[in-house]
Batch of 4 targets.
Target 1
Amino acid sequence: MKMSEHHAVTFEDAAAKEPKSRKRGLSVMRDEDHIQIPEKLHKSTVLSLIKPSYLLGLGSKNLRLENRNRLCYLLHKLVRQRNWVNASGVLSMLLKGTTKEKCPTVNRLKYLVSMELLDHLEKSPEDKFVVHLEFVIFCLTRGDVKEAHQAAMSLMQEREFRGHPMSNMVTALTFCERWHSSIPTEMKWKDSDQIYSPMHCDFSGAKLSHHGGNSGSFDTVCSHEDETHLRNDSDTSVMIGKRVFMEIGNDLSKEGPIEDHVYLAAENIQPLSSVENEVSSLNDVGPVNFASLIDALDGLDSWLLPIKLPKSYEDYDNFLKKHGKLLNDDYKNAMKYLRLALYSTPPVLSALLPFIQLLLVGGHVDEALKELDRFCHNSQTDIPFRLRASLLECFDRNNHGMLTNCFEDILKKDPTCPDSLAKLMHMHQNGYYSTESLVEMIALHLDATYADSNTWREFALCFLKLSQSEEDRMSVCLDGNEGVKKQQFSVCYKKIPNILTEGNSGKNWMLRCRWWLNRHFSKKKLASDIAAGDIQMLTCKAACASHMYGQEFNYVVQAYTNLDKEKDRDLCLFLKMHMQNSIRLYSDHLRKT
């Protein structure tokens, strides 16, 4: 211990006697293993890990300095070219990278370019106009309708207002909010009375549960309060929710077609003057006999009709008096600018639903159907078709041909939609839709999603009906080596319908059968279906598989064996019936196995 103290004193004395001109040695740090690490090296290592840009300043070649010089050169070049968009981006990067810059030349450059950009923005009315639009949307999302209205009135005085698609939409939403605030409380829908939002999913009505084969569950859902258990959440009141505002706000900065992906032929776009004349003529029409429409409108869902209809005949007179006051100037202005937004270039399809809603509030049912017909002809989305189908179900429900066309168009544009398929299945059960068409629509749906047992059951029944409508073909004797079973047996298959084998449809069915071997009927899927314990789903899928691949197909054999163990006689008979009437559409899998 004395020796250690002596060495320590000697080291301190030597350090004190060092000349001041001598460079100070590196301070050291000791880790747990008592290894000496220079403190500067330790800090450099930490900086390189937590701040990778630190490495740019190390080495003989200072990359950070080179990058700054390149940014300055690029900024000079862009300013000379008057390329303000790219110059603003380079300036932003340079400002971030030179926050502690002490060079007067670089700081002067940043200052001068910033002043140039500010001067350019002040001379750009388009940018100011977009900011004005965003301010109106901000007021609406905040619920400040009065401030939004004042801002919208000021916006309408701008030179760019008339030809800007979103300006008409934002102005229309402002008037819609003012109009909705004037609706009496007893005529407004409550949150518990509203169905799910059509902008998110289906426009054709509330989601329907279709368990079993009865047609009653597919009827149009009425809008009475005592039936609100069929409805989910929604945003009624002409869909003026904050979500819609945010979508429009994001579209203000986009170039090209706005959010809707609706492309109308150039000859179908009406001039603004003719659109304004149509709106004026519509508003000048005498009051519609709304009382005669109440019974028909009563079948509409709340997302299509944003006012609550009277519950009893005693309330009709009071309702009609209040309804007449709703068709005020705000209502007319909202109609005007919604239509201008719809027929602008490019069109804003977000205006379609609130425009149809307001037409229905005014009793203009024919005009609403006419507008939807125009958009259905050239629409790339399913929204107009869903709206049209909902109106036809309410006002022309016996027009089965037009309804089936609407539901088919919806499925073609959105094959995952279960409600439209359920409506087609319901119409097929009532004899208004052919088996050949339904089997195509169900297959299209199964191409896009995994359906429930009821859909698979209806699919199997379609195959059964098609097989019974064709003549029996020659019996074929299969050798056991070709099938799943080892013994020899004789199988009699029905004649394959022509719609499943001829032309492009036949090619599509062959490709589908090959694809579904892995998608719906693989060994892994079979094990999953058995483990799920849904024997109805297993039975219905096996029935379909027997028609597509034959009764000796592995999925069919294993499903039948499983049903036999479950001792479910009804399901066994159901599957056996389909196996005996199988058409075996596809047989290439037998040669592969």
Target 2
Amino acid sequence: MGSKEREIKSPEVQLGENNSDSGKRGSKKLGIYFIESDSRRTPLGRGYSAGVGGATPVNIHGKPIRDMSKTGGWIAALFIFGNEMAERMAYFGLSVNMVAFMFYVMHRPFSSSANAVNYFLGISQASSVLGGFIADAYLGRYWTIAIFTTIYLAGLTGITLLATMKVFVPNQEGCDQIALLLGNCEPAKSWQMTYLYTVLYVTGFGAAGIRPCVSSFGADQFDERSRNYRSHLDRFFNFFYLSVTVGAIVAFTAVVYIQIKHGWGAAFGSLAIAMGLSNMFFFAGTPLYRHRLPGGSPLTRVAQVLVAAFRKRNVSFQSSEFVGLYELPGKRSAIKGSNKIAHTDDFRCLDKAALQLKEDDGTNPWRLCTVTQVEEVKILLKLIPIPSCTIMINVILTEFLTLSVQQAYTLNTHMGHLKLPVTCMPVFPGLSIFLLLSLYYSVFVPISRRITGNPHGASQLQRVGIGLAVSILSAAWAGVFERYRRTYAIQHEYEASFLTPMPDLSAYWLLIQYCLIGIAEVFCIVGLLEFLYEEAPDAMRSIGSAYAAVAGGLGCFAASILNTIVKSVTRGKGERRESWLSQNINTGRFDYFYWLLTIMSLINFAAFLYAANRYQYRAKDEIQTNGLESDHTNTNASDPIRTPKLSVFGGE
């Protein structure tokens, strides 16, 4: 087909023959032309699948789905919920049990065991971007989940063998609690620790591949053209996090019970069995799933934009060689699995990647990129501040997982005649999440709808903001209660007995901070997941979802680094002065540490308000052109491209 070109004027500046601004293409609103040509290859030199364009759902064979009513929807989502529930059960089961396993069985010091598990959790979450990249670039979300969930199962099986076979653990004879505290137990051999870290990180690698894909793959099951799409999507992410919560509750109760009654091998084995059953359940739903075509390597497209923009860094938009900003004709973009994205005025230096000069023929993507490709990079950059502001809530979650348990050891955990194991205490945030999600649509949405006028109760960023605000209250209350608990322990002569529970002080005072952080997690994380899925480019949604996991991983790392700094700074020169995070919680100052978290959270919240008020939601209708069809016939050159912008806190 011969090349044909057409100019579509930007809405900001209507350029006509007598327009005095016709020479001001470098003005603030970039009065540019879009040049659309058929003589353009995709960024990876590939064409389109026959009959498939934009973000059209396909079946597992990559073919268009003829009858959408037989695929996707809530039934398909249920199979995905099951997989996520088991994955979270394994994740939290390892996080709550592995520190104790390394201390009691592998005879590692408690502090190094906690740091090792924190680093494992951090690397597992931070490396989720790898799973998102593989899904968006090559395999698609289904096959990425299928492969990495199998790797996950292999890692859990290896951990079960470790806990079951005596050859993998050091000698346990004569190793009672006193010997453990004094460090007199036989340490694990180097090869035993190597095996433990190997199977542990194989498990983490499997989790990293699954985590960014499951929520996006579940959201893919709903038709974007449906009138109820936004409502379905909103409910999906709430139910998705409900499945996460159910997995966590099972891990903090049933798995802990199995470990106490039947040992470590049975506990880790139950996680492997649950993961195996969920894999079978996930594969059983294969005929029902809707898929999105992978759009090719996102890193390659990002690199092409950066290289092309750098090559033309010295070219002015007022240059006589400037023809326009380049885009493919019709509704299809150059990126498989993606709609076109309207041009925006952010990061104008990147627009030079799409700046077409007279010498450009549109065949070298390392010199000339489409507007959509440039906008993908802009979107990825614009998204970064929001998940970055959620790192702090992940720091608090990580600290609560260990510090609150240390508090619970000094408190009475009896509930009537029932004594609750200390390791079960983290179940209460899960229960508060479960309760809140159950009441979300019947209580929160109607009330907040009257306040905000938003049909969903609150916009995505409003929910993230609510979560961050409640997390501040949680950290502040933890500081208040810890000050009371420490004073009580000193007054009643428990200062040296930090492992002895105080019978008259109930551990259930911790429920307040647990419930508050649970509420914060619901609003912040669920809102963030929905925000990232909606705002990420069509062909980069797994990477967008990975942003949330990366923030979680960075939160784990930040918590470990913060602990190290606080211990170093607050430990006095004299041998008798304890650090804030002393192993003896009664002589340490955990209350000061909680208030430090409160102050850091307040600063973080202010940064979030600034970032959120500057953010503008993407226009969901993408590029809208009057009469623009694939054959480009009878199109007036003055048809505008609309680039609507939406306020952040006012609605979506």
Target 3
Amino acid sequence: MHSNHLLLEEPIRMASILEPSKSSFFPAMTKIVGTLGPKSRSVEVISGCLKAGMSVARFDFSLGDADYHQETLENLKASIKTTKKLCAVMLDTAGPELQVVNKSEQPISLKADATVTLTPDEGQEASSDVFPINFGGLSKAVKKGDTIFIGQYLFTGSETTSVWLEVDEVKGDDVVCVVKNSATLTGSLFTLHASQIHIDLPTLSDKDKEVISTWGAQNKIDFLSLSFTRHAEDVREAREFLSKLGDLGQTQIFAKIESVEGLTHFDEILQEADGIILSRGNLGIDLPPEKVFLFQKAAVHKCNMAGKPAVVTRVVDSMTDNLRPTRAEATDVANAVLDGTDAILLGAETLRGLYPIETISTVGRICAEAEKVFNQDLYFKKTVKFVGEPMTHLESIASSAVRAAIKVKASVIICFTSSGRAARLIAKYRPTMPVLSVVIPRLKTNQLKWSFTGAFETQARQSLIVRGLFPMLADPRHPAESTNASNESVLKVALDHGKASGVVKSHDRVVICQKVGDASVVKIIELED
């Protein structure tokens, strides 16, 4: 199954490029996060997105209220039922986002070399002369010559609906700017980003806290995307806040890096967060364009070595309005996969794009092609070298399972796990075959009755953002500390699932990683007819 893996370092037969790609049950090892919004919130479209390969649904609270998102979530649940595709839920906070509110929603035309005043007086109407903003401290944060970007919310960069301003003077609370390019701004909400300027606002706003403690807690969200993470302390504060909300103690925090400040403190943030989202839209404003790729490669590598998911955004902006990506975008997606990215996050493309399903499908196909030429051997050696010796017990088992699977050309690795940690460690070594993570609940007793611990469904869904990891929920009647006989019956279910989905067939080899008593065991089995 996996002998046809090419490496980019080897000469590729040109004719092989023209051979049609074989479809498989898992469209790609790389995961796809889709943002649900106006163009992608019906049951019909969400079902299409799930079938096309979306495994995480992102709910962006910069737009829409709790009722709006609840309706979308109910449609997602209905779609999961009908398609039988598991999907995780990510809540994306608004954070210290600076916005221009255009109450009239009338288009605003700006001409190059004209001046426009940014004012904290939100009572004023937005016009070509005045932009009311939601922050009173901008005049204290900027100085003459600073750059400010204003664009449509989730701007793609291809529209003529974004404008660059240069600060000319500060008048009291107002900031007078010179318009650098002619543009027409449309819509009710514009994003304002001051390049390389510290904005003195909390990372978790009061509005964010309210949304998390109500909508988030009520729906037991799997991931919190922490917008504008600038320091490790931001993640610690968010985790402390979640821990007080009972049901959200298991929620994973993904730090969204979108400014030079976050980049500067990247290593400390990575230590605290469960994963990283590289928000290339805002980063592309803060960084010179020629530096963005460098940050992406360095950040993804650090995430890979830490065994934490790296998510890349803003890859196929042009598909917001077009059925096909540009050649540069298609290459960009492939390069993100070759860099080691776990997941691709689609924003405007699915939120307000005309082709949400086709976009997910196209990105999935590009990822699958790139995975075929991913140099796993080199990656494995680099990771082992980085981890060093002595390895921890679990790390040693995980790397051995991957090594064995590659040596015997296994079709799949099956990992029994209750916390999900063992399966994530196996995925860290980027095996060329899928990892089926069989999530088993733990049993605890208080002498009177037995009960399950650990949000085992949450842990299963949280693996939906990890490259190459595909979860399967075990029957709760087979808890983690059960006998070998019940483990065998769970294994049979996992293999039957693998056969039904076409991942394994007769005479295939399968590597199994499981706990037997206190010992962790890696074994290789060959399937009979």
Target 4
Amino acid sequence: MRIEKQHSTWGFSLEGGDKCNKDDMNEDDNAGDCKTSGTVTPVWETTTPPEIDSNMKNKQISNSWSVGINSTQKDMLDDDAHLKVSYSPGKKGGNFGLPLGAKLTVPEGLFGKKDSISCQVAPPSQRWRHSPVLPYYEHLTSEIFILNSTVHPLKKSVIVRIPYYQIDSEHNEINVKGKWKDEEEWVNSDTSSPCIELEIDRLGVFVVTFTPKKETFKVTTQGCLYNAHMSKYISVRVPKKAAEKNFQCAIQITPITEEKVKLAKEFYPFETSELENVSEIIDLIPNFQCTFRRAVSVKLPLPANVEVENESANTDIAVLAKLESGWELVDTKYRFTRTTVTCDVKSLTRFCVVKSKPDRKKRMAAAVSILEGRCEMEKGEVMAFINFQEKTWFLVLECFPKNKLDSKIAEMKEKGFRHFKKEISKPEEPVDNKQHFRRPPTIKTKSQNVPVEFEIFDGLKWTFNVSDDLKANLDSDYMENKDLQYYKHLPESLRKFVIEPKTTEERTLIGAINLTPVGINDQKVREASTMALRIEVDEETVKAYFHEEVIPEEPEVKKEKPNLDLLRTPEIKVDKPTTPFTPKFKPLPASVMERLMRTSRPQIIIERESKAITGKSLRNLSKYVPEGLTLAVHLDLPDSTITGIGFDAISNGLSMADVTYKILLYWKRTRKDKKDLAVEMLADALREMGRVEAAHVVQECHKNSKEVTPEIYSELLSKMALS
């Protein structure tokens, strides 16, 4: 599988549609020129990075499209038909538009007249059926594309361009995962520059993901001085004989945005009150844990907008390292430049540089620990939207960031949906009536009094169930899967199904959707993420659901009896027909009849081949006579034919029996007589090459009109041995 990507701003526009012309794929054209149905936001960029080599430049395609994405404005009640297209390219092939702005190029001669190829995008409510299981550091950044074809496998490669959503390209890299048709394992395909283009000869399920960028370097026992390419402010200096053996080390950078710092100070004011600024979290990860014999110098960048002019005056800048016990202050002498700080350590691990208030560096470990856990978290909301129709109640259960709350409610309200907010489920505290000895009171910090806010992160998953007076319709996919997963980098994370009353009582119904987080061990976070959505349906809506429409009976139309007298036709007197005259012919003489029936063409006599040289007989015979090339010489085949068959056998890896079989078939086709003379010629050739027993078997089978089989071959050999 070959993959090419264009260099441009990360992201793409979504559009669904039909076939596109080649002219629609030029840079100067509009992305909307293709006949599509959907929203398009084209952002054309043609910047070429200096790192791309000449080979990559030659492979760049004319369409440098990369776009920013908007949420689809489709009706929530649609059946997602716009997410599936099917084409019959025919023998000419061509360029075709796929859903959400994807492109397909089919080469000429790949498909026949009746063959077809289809592409379907997994809708958000059905994403759980195809979503791969990813590690914690890998995230989806595109929709899931499912490609199928009536031709399998493909004789030629097709080119598929998969769009993806905007990501932070400075600290992350794109990857493509594919799952081939009729297989279960997902395959990684490493990529190096944006605009994904796949050249594949097998169809299946494809999705674009991204992982943090990593840069590796080698450390030897003779020392190492490495300056990182990811950041010019990071370097590692390992002195000679500091390491016991050679090892590989990886550099990875995790940014901490100002918004994350602001949220951490809001929720954890006690731990973060002394924090003023912080750098990225920088990982120096060796492939095995080791303690150096001599100190290793690590140079790290200072926090943003922090510069050092006088080393002695900077007692408020600290370097923290994450050890087995947690974050700890690196208590060594710091060496500053204007934008970096260098310290000596005895092991490589995760580092972070912070600026604190004067003489408060020792309190930075708790602050960095909180920031580390909040790098990928944000305030979130889970909400249920219900559209009450007379006979159908559509429910949409969706998770989204809290800053989209007002726009999401307004959008769903326009489509006729009512919203229901969550209620945090707090576990009841058991009442303990036992008497205990008085103990010193626990000193509570300010942060312990602050309730834990509900936050979401990519991959957060809940199991949910519909309870109380409501239930899910059995025809929906609720019965197959009861999980709701949040996809941070995709526009929608939702489940759709139909609900209905549990009983036939016409009263006000109160139902609930209970959500329990999966895979969260922290008790406070688990309690904040456990919730219930209370749904109240008024009595009028319930009555409208059970109301049976009375169809008025149509009045019977009285049929008038037709006047049959008008339909009667007057009788017409017809004379009786006379007997027709039949002429008599004289019989022809026998000599005349014989002359008329005689044919001038010679009689065609169908000659059948001997059963000893049928295809089955020759196949079985070739297993006992592997010396095919020798047999070809005794059958007087041309030298050019023998040489061609020999080279063909070598190139295709044929066995000796296969070579003999091909020679016998070629010899048989060249013979006009396929009975006695052919059998005699084959038997003579076998005797000349020393295979008397094979010649005897061929002649006996011809004599008894039987095919050569392993049983007959063994039986005749036994008789020859006894005689």
